[in-house]
Write the structure tokens for this entry.
Amino acid sequence: MNRPRKAGSANQEDLNIVAKETPRGLVTVRPVCPPGSFGHLEMESGLGHFAHYSSIIMNVDSFETIARRKGGRVTLAVLEPNLIVGYGLCWYPDETDRWKALGELMYEMAAVEVSRNLRGMHLARTVMDVTMNDDFFEDKITYMMGLSWHWDLEGKGLSAAQYRRLMMELYSLYGFREVYTNEPNIALRPENVMMIRVGSRVSEEDQRKFRYLRFGIKPKN
């Protein structure tokens, strides 16, 4: 079995790239891709619009927009030389999100997706490995919102309950745990789920504020 390996380079940024041999060829997983690094890339055909499912990201320009956001983080899995076959996206909450009330304490793991054509190769886990391998997260409550209308149930051949369980198993490997909330999108369907990872340097007071905010009680200044 081929194992991920660090790609050799004298550059510190390159040292964080993981190279993984797959049946389709060499895939490199690159964390924190900066603005301006997407122009030569293309979306692989397994990331796109299907009958019952559409990728969250439909074109390369969207990665540029996210990378330019404050706190925007793009991890890409690239089938060499230039096909994007997976990605991880993180950002601070939007102004309209309830979690914005805690400022930059809250950080969203917004999406992890792998092309339909390269699933079963553990690329989602490699994307998570590379993304979460950063001390940055120790100062954050990192959260994910598992919303079933974004799930590719048809492509995976799973029920919503099975997909939910699979996703929770993946995130739990990185210290995420399920929490309950009355946030409207989560509460809309029983299969939806919110998971969080509390960084090691997050104070008890900030954790308390978050517990209240989960149920719409905003912290007092």
Notes: The chain has one domain: 14-213. DSSP finds seven helices and twelve strands in the chain. Residues 1-12 have pLDDT under 50 and may be disordered.
